[in-house]
Amino acid sequence: MPRVYVETYGCQMNVADTELILGLLGRDGYVPAEQPEGADVILVNTCAVRDHAERRVIGRVGELKRYKRPGDVLGVVGCMAQRLGTTLLESTPHVDLVVGPDGYRGLPELIAAARAGERTADVAFKGWEHYEDVDPARPGSGPSAFVTVQRGCDYRCTFCVVPMTRGPERSRKLEGVLREVEGLAANGVTEVTLLGQTVNSYHDGRFDFADLLRAVGGVAGVRRVRFTSPHPNDFSDRVIGAMAEVPAVCEHVHLPVQSGSSRVLRRMLRRYTREQYLDCVARLRRAVPGIALTTDIIVGFPGETEADFAETESLVREVGFDDAYTFKYSPRDGTAALKIRDHVPDGVAGERLERLIVTVRDVARRRNIRLVGSTHEVLVEKPARRGELLQTRTRTNKVVLLQGPAEWIGSYRMVRFTGTTGATFTATPVLAARELAVVG
Ligand code: SAH
Ligand code: F3S
Fold it and tell me: I want to staple 108 with a disulfide (CB 3.0 to 4.6 A). Which of 28, 146, 207, 372 is the partner?
């Protein structure tokens, strides 16, 4: 049986897309390989959001070339494939095929053609494509699974290449999502993460994201529902109401802000002001007590002044984010931000990024220290990287290290936090009230 190795870069949707690709090729008899050595087909599933991500992939594709035996196929798929298309075939002679996120259905034929010596690129958008009939292969996924509910993006943030690489926004039918989640639950999955570029704008023509949360949260066996990433403008009262009312929906939202300055936000075409973002945060906190908030922030966007940056830092303190992914602005071909003058020198952006990271860590550490001594339900995920410990996660998405037997993996436990590094926690198991009653 032919073997396929897929290496995945970028966001969670790419992880889910790789599972889709493995499922699709599995129908054609391909088995997944853990290593590039000996694989008949090597695919690199790529990210195009920042230049740095693309450079890494180019380097890696150069390395993977050496595993290619005669007749083997090396392909680049995903957002960078979509962005560069045939240019990538021309610039990298060892690449046989280039396929964008809407073209995976054609992979078996394209691989067969590549075997026969043909080099092709498929970067056509298919605004209807959901791969609804494909069962994603989720090798060893354990208790947690990603479920893509929406593809593409109809926003046009001026820094962002995603609308150009993933095409127009489209939502899967609620029934299709539900069928998939029921299947997962029947196979022991208890935690589901719904994926979309602006996932809370989900609308299948009949049902919105509030309906989806209620439906998925109502599936027997599903104990935790997460979603990523929402857009602040798409948190309707209906959606926030569903979050508050559906017990399975976790108390954590990753809510990209990008900047704390309304002036910069306008140039980014984020479609909200600092005040509107803060209002969204207040509505979420009112509806879901104890909710944890994380975010994405870009520094050095064209025209960002020291005063703008100070507003970003003050927003981080005002919201009190539990964590943040911080990025230096990376100019992308074809995006509107390229036309904005007032480029921020790299040294200045780099220095702002360093200061921001310190602020984010400080804010997170203060919040986390206050949590020491509190009790939480954790899902035991896997052995921790160091020592005998297990890696677990709270509903608020905090990583907690716990001593316990490997048999606990996949189960839910009550624990009390005993300490924090500032980012992660240590904990000891405690008996839940119910168990205490039995013991007593
Ligand atoms: N809506 C998507 C965003 C995908 S990009 C989602 O959250 O699922 C993920 C993050 O990368 C963005 O939130 C942004 O902070 C960052 N990013 C996007 N384009 C960028 C660029 N040109 N330079 C730097 N960071 C960027
Ligand atoms: Fe990108 Fe903005 Fe869409 S960040 S993915 S254009 S919401």
Answer: 28
